[in-house]
Amino acid sequence: MNHDTTPLGPRPLVHLERTQRRVMTARELRAHGVPANVLAERCRPGGPWQQVLPQVFLLHSGPATGEERLHAALLYAGQPTPGLDRRATQAMVTGLAALALHGFRAVPPLCALDQIDVLIPRQRRLRAVGDLRIRRANSLPRPVSILGLPCAPVPRAVADAVAGLGDPETVRALLTESVRARGCEAASVVRELNNARLLCRPHVVRAVDALLAEGRAIAESRLYKMVRQYGLPDPLWNVDLRLPGGPHLGSVDAYWPDHAVALELDARAPRQDDEALWRQHARAREQLERLGIDVIITTPKKLRESLEQQAAVVRTALLGADDRNPHAYVAVLPR
Predict the structure, then answer these.
(1) Alpha carbon distance 74, 328 (integer Å)
(2) Which domain of life is it from (predicted)?
(3) 6 pLDDT exceeds 70?
(4) pLDDT range class, residue 5, cuts 50, 70, 90
(5) How far is residue 199's CA from residue 40's CA, in Å, rounded to a whole number?
(6) Which end of the chain is less congested by CB atoms within 10 angstroms, N or C?
């Protein structure tokens, strides 16, 4: 009987190098039967593999592709931390890298980025290394999957990108594109910038002012479309209301004087110095309602997501005008 006495050697490693994902952790390689000494040998200078981050290896020589860099960053940042809940070990791409995945034209391609930003829970102890920069959050947003990679949603990714940028034109381009081409509400972007305490930087504040103007212009165009498309009576656009010979009552975006219905587009966003202004707007709204004027508040988000529903709200208010108590006479002036 012929016995094969050839000693058993390590599993052939070519099957790993031919896989679609050629970035793996040391733990994954051990699970594939690659012992530490073989791993060290293959990662020697001039060897066929390389270590790109602690405990993360690239299974080919030469530079990593942009997507491989992201996989490596997520594998490094996603490694479990002893003593923490498994759910607290999440990580997602953020900053410029996430915006590149979202398709931003104002962002360089992945292969040209100097750093990769990864967002992790604040309680995790993880240090930045190599070209990997760590961003932290008290609670992570729900990630968006792009090319199978978890990415921060655009508003959060913009804030993390802006945190590392000093060029005013680049900051403004990112903020504008987020609203104009990526369907974000200006308020959500500004909220993330405010949470990141970036509104103390003058160039960011200037970019935010341009962003809010951009967001309002888009919302106003949807408001005009709503009136035309759903056959609402033409209002007086962008007017100031005041008592005859008396004080200014407030400014509204649309006013139907025969029905005493006013519409206000609330396109403001959280700012560090806006609390007093918000209280002023609330008092003006309450004063109009005491005078018998029905004030409808809409937002850019509502106009974008439910235009027909917003038209129905306005139509209901107009049809109900005869059922309300007579309103006080107010003077209407151009804003």
Answers:
(1) 62
(2) Bacteria
(3) no
(4) very low
(5) 48
(6) N
CA 32 – CA 55 distance, rounded (Å): 15
| Amino acid type, 214 | E
Q: Which amino acid is at 36?
A: A
What distance in Å separates the CA atoms of residue 326 and residue 293, rounded to the nearest whole number? 9
SS (H, E, C) the chain: CCCCCCCCCCCCCHHHHCCCCCEEEHHHHHHCCCCHHHHHHHCCCCCCCEEEECCEEECCCCCCCHHHHHHHHHHHHCCCCCCCCHHHHCCEEEHHHHHHHHCCCCCCCHHHCCCEEEEEECCCCCCCECCEEEEEECCCCCCEEECCEEECCHHHHHHHHHHCCCCHHHHHHHHHHHHHCCCCCHHHHHHHHHHCCCCCCHHHHHHHHHHHHHHHHHHHHHHHHHHHHCCCCCCEEEEEEECCCCCEEEEEEEEECCCCEEEEECCCCCCCCCHHHHHHHHHHHHHHHHCCCEEEEECHHHHHHCHHHHHHHHHHHHHHHHHCCCCCCCEEEEC
- Specify the length of the chain in residues: 335
Q: What span, in angstroms and rounded, lies between the C-alpha atoms of 172 and 213?
A: 12
- Sequence-distant (6+) residues with CB within 8 A of 206 are 168, 172
Which residue, 69, 130, 67, is CA-closest to 101? Answer: 67
Give residue-wise pLDDT tens across range 279-316: 777 788 888 888 889 999 999 889 999 999 999 999 99
Residue 88 has pLDDT above 50, yes or no: no
Residue 128 has pLDDT above 60, yes or no: yes
| Statement: residue 100 has pLDDT above 90 | yes
Q: What is the pLDDT of residues 158-211, one digit of tens each?
A: 999 999 999 999 999 999 999 888 878 888 899 999 999 999 999 999 999 888
